[in-house]
From TrEMBL, chains A, B:
Belongs to the thiamine-monophosphate kinase family. Mg(2+) 4 binds at D39, T54, D85. Mg(2+) 1 binds at T55, D56, D135. This is Thiamine-monophosphate kinase. It catalyses: thiamine phosphate + ATP = thiamine diphosphate + ADP. Mg(2+) 5 binds at D240.
Length: 344, 344
């Protein structure tokens, strides 16, 4: 690890650049019908027997802070974000593994709460799925990596790349609330991450729907396989904001997504009695709803709302438009030098 | 996380105690035919279609040190230890996922080397298996969690609990070398973990087999499915030393393992021209060979050597005996307050 003039650090290159370099080193697994780049990889080539797999990690500091996250919510969110990636392939979650590393002085009760949260999220969001194994070690901060498995019950997994011109763009789940919840936490946070101008309990009492969406999200997991059965052409879990992830789906499918601001406002402008601005819907992030495209004639399954249409995209054209105008989403990078990963 | 008189930390309770508490929180996954506690969990209930899954993490500090571990070896060892857990179920590894978290200032080249090591280990030890997905984030130290999937090609996975009185106890792989390699590194290490009285290059030149066994182990992965096909009754990956892991297999199977010191010396007393004492074989750890039991009449597959017999165990009897005498293995715990996890 000599530092010389020619070296590049991960902080300089950013997550996507680093991933591109790493992926270039890797030989494809024979059994993988879909490798890295989608919400999950797909293992197996017998239709109806495909297994999907995904992994997501939360690290104290960049991904969560103990003054904000009780163990239960941490475990819940870890399960929910991974289950959502499985659902986004049209698959039903079957099992999770947990790799947990904590400082020596961590209370056992905190780890029990993490396990309770993982378990409650599985029972609530994906009944039948559960933790089947894990690994426990020591680290200077709390690190929790979850890997989720799922089973594809229909012909093949749904990827990001199958959307066609004319398809319906639909969304299922909460939209914008999680980002507003994070803003609320930040607006009352001191530099060390502790809510101070209002206590966390006060914030919970005033805005349970915002803090719940941010700290213990409830993605519509069963709608993933239902969308697949209804003929979904493309699907993805929205984690970095509808605009940014929508542009990714459009790029993968080589199409443009035309979003309809009025439809967004109609379906998601009021959630739990709260007004949600379109900007929060587009850039809030951590929603973990399902952005899905369906053939034009599809009767959308209950839970999905049409928010736009898939259009043609020529080389150089924008991937995402709002009311006909190109919309450039701000991105985020885990290596960006900010205190906490603020999506959007 | 208030510290009160009634609280217990993970450092106080130790890994097994913490795991017992956590497992008590968890609802079983419907699809899991075998949950936590073996080398892998088993998913699926159609014989011949079972998927096994395992996860293992390496964290800078407790599990590895940058002055000793180049990125390539770190990636290799991560793959090898997980592949070995898959093989120990009698399964063929199909895919790995990688969750990697590193400090901002980490060189991209180091991550590329990790990927090269992972990939080379897959190609060499388990051709066809590869990395299918991952996650990249930031952390104060390097943390790498790998999850491995495997496919069971025969009737059912081989667990730790199927050994019967009269069975042959056999072992395949290197034995004791990895522990001797770690001792060699420690014997030349300053407090900060840097080899100083001899450089690492000098140590590699003198004892390539010891450092290779410790830093880039080569477990006999293909022998896992072969043992299963030959009728193995129980099998496990030896990671914490033959004595300690042997006692675990005996406990899980409710039998006693009678090890034969002369057989150990005959088959493993000289490896790569080096003399290996029986104590190193029993307590060295990180061997990642396959401890396997077979029915008495089995013609052992090439690569396996008989090292003992399975005997009856009454309540209170010892689980492991060497030449007829109870052998108490020293254990290790990742939360024990030592500089590096010394197995054995």
């Amino acid at each position: 690890m000599n530092k010389t003039a020619g070296t590049v650090t991960v902080g300089q290159l950013g997550e996507r650049g680093v991933l591109a370099r790493i992926l270039a080193q890797l030989t494809a697994a024979h059994a993988a019908t879909l490798g890295p780049g989608d919400d999950c990889a797909v293992i197996g080539d017998r239709p109806g027997f495909d297994t999907v797999i995904t992994t997501d990690t939360m690290i104290e500091g960049p991904d969560f802070r103990l003054p904000w996250h009780a163990g239960f919510e941490l475990g819940w969110k870890l399960a929910a974000t991974n289950l959502s990636d499985v659902a986004a392939m049209g698959a039903t979650p079957t099992a999770l593994t947990l790799s947990l590393a904590v400082p020596q002085g961590t209370e056992v009760a905190f780890l029990e709460q993490i396990a309770e949260g993982l378990d409650a999220a599985c029972r609530t969001l994906a009944p039948g799925c559960g933790v089947v194994g894990g690994d426990l070690g020591t680290a200077p901060v709390i690190m929790a990596a979850v890997t989720a498995l799922g089973q594809v019950a229909h012909e093949t997994a749904v990827t990001r790349s199958g959307a066609s011109e004319g398809d319906i763009v639909a969304y299922a789940g909460e939209l914008g609330l999680a980002g507003l919840g994070l803003s609320l936490l930040f607006s009352h946070a001191a530099d060390d991450g502790v809510a101070h101008s209002r206590t966390l309990n006060e914030l919970w009492a005033e805005h349970p729907e915002l803090l719940s969406a941010q700290l213990a999200p409830a993605p519509p997991i069963p709608l993933g396989p239902i969308a697949a059965a209804a003929g979904a052409t493309a699907m993805m879990d929205v984690s970095d904001g509808l605009a940014l992830d929508g542009a990714r789906l459009a790029r993968a499918s080589d199409v443009a997504l035309h979003l309809d601001g009025a439809a967004l406002t109609t379906h998601f402008g009021t959630q739990y009695g709260l007004e949600v601005p379109v900007t929060a819907m587009l850039e809030g992030g951590e929603d973990h709803g399902l952005l899905t495209t369906f053939p034009a004639a599809t009767a959308l399954p209950v839970g999905f709302h049409q928010i736009g249409r898939v259009g043609h995209r020529a080389a150089g054209d924008p991937e995402l438009l709002l009311n006909g105008t190109p919309y450039a989403a701000r991105g985020w990078d885990p290596f960006a030098p900010i205190a906490l990963n603020r999506r959007g």
